[in-house]
User: Fold this.
Amino acid sequence: MGTERNDRIEQRRSPVPLAIFGGRGGGAQAAFAAQRLEAQGLMRCVGFLNDNEPAGTLISGYPVLGPFVSWPDLAKETRFLAPLHKAKQMMARADAIRELNVPLDRWANVIDPQAVVAPDVSLGTGVFASAGSSIMCGSRIGHHVAVRPGGHIGHDALVEDFAFVGANAVVCGYAKVMEGAHIAPGALIREGTTVGRYSVVGLGAVVVDDVPDGTIVAGNPARIINTISL
Ligand SMILES: CC(C)(COP(=O)(O)OP(=O)(O)OC[C@H]1O[C@@H](n2cnc3c(N)ncnc32)[C@H](O)[C@@H]1OP(=O)(O)O)[C@@H](O)C(=O)NCCC(=O)NCCS
Assistant:
């Protein structure tokens, strides 16, 4: 009991410094979550790594520290997050994250204090769960997965590395979202179905059948509208 209390005090003394790859959009949302974790003494956003905007530029009040390649220059206790997901570019983004060669133990999970994650969920690393998102019992979440506000992952679901679950999207129980798949805001994935690798489920789509790898689907019920070369 005493040890637990001391651990909590220790956490308050040394919040984990967090640097975010990216910037406006997903990066800024992650910085906002980190700010809320900072209020609990758990994490402290030190800024962004960004290839498009010069060092010193402020994004949502946090500075650009340098380009992506400068991550090794940051203090060794710094942890990283790369919320770089973008529909139809998921494979290139996943490759970009891999090419950074950040060791697995340097990635942070940024779980907003108002996200709900069941205690038996297995989480990879580099996971970002926004305020109001929920991940239910028995689910398995890979590395570099993002779940945006109101995104819900039901029980016993599988969400593989680099996948994205947009705002108010629902992945029902036992569904599988394979590597790098992009579930756009408001989409619904029926229980037990599989969304293939690097596929895109469009805004508000209702997936009732399996979606093959590298496929774009839209509508209710979701139909194939295009493909993505893998
Ligand atoms: C599904 C999606 C990827 C399709 O984009 P696209 O490949 O550029 O396709 P287009 O916009 O040219 O649309 C192709 C056809 O599908 C239809 N369509 C596109 N998105 C649709 C959707 N969500 N629901 C129903 N129909 C849709 C279009 O009306 C068009 O129909 P038409 O050929 O009869 O004119 C895109 O609409 C989408 O939902 N992107 C997700 C964006 C996202 O996640 N944003 C949030 C980021 S936080």
